[in-house]
Amino acid sequence: MGESGSEPEQRELLTLRERAEAEPDDSERWYRLGGALDSAGHEALAMDAYQRVFDLGIEHLAEEERPQLFVQAGSTLRNLGRLDEARQLLETGRAEFPDFQALAAFLALVEISAGRERRAISLLFDALLNRSEDDGSIRRFHRSLRWYAAHLDEDQQDRPER
User: Fold this and answer.
1) Does residue 125 belong to any structural domain of this protein?
2) Less packed terminus of the chain by CB within 10 Å, N or C?
3) What is the pTM of this model?
4) Tetratrico peptide repeat group domain location, by residue (predicted)?
């Protein structure tokens, strides 16, 4: 891990890594490490931890964390510029967890990054119109979605002209 972040943050990341490495078959520990690395801006390392969870099997995670893993890993892949992989992962998540509308919202961000704005709008309408009262997934990722929405112009500037 890099030198970025505060000393307490670095200690927490080190502790989480040590715990995951001490129990290499514990999906929950790798998931926690991935989330912490992601939050600290270490996307490539976070993706390694998320991939470990997928390799071990998501069925070992708590039920509510399974669709969140798809969102977090898909978003991380997008941030790494791996749009095709992000799209595939988020589509898989949508098929497996069709009522978890945050998957559609993050897939829309991938489509915007890929220059497919019409597809993104379609996904967002689908999420809006099919959201059930029981689905708190958009609320769960509210802060991230708000940040990404505020920075869409930056995403557009990074793309080559079509």
Assistant:
1) no
2) C
3) 0.88
4) 33-152
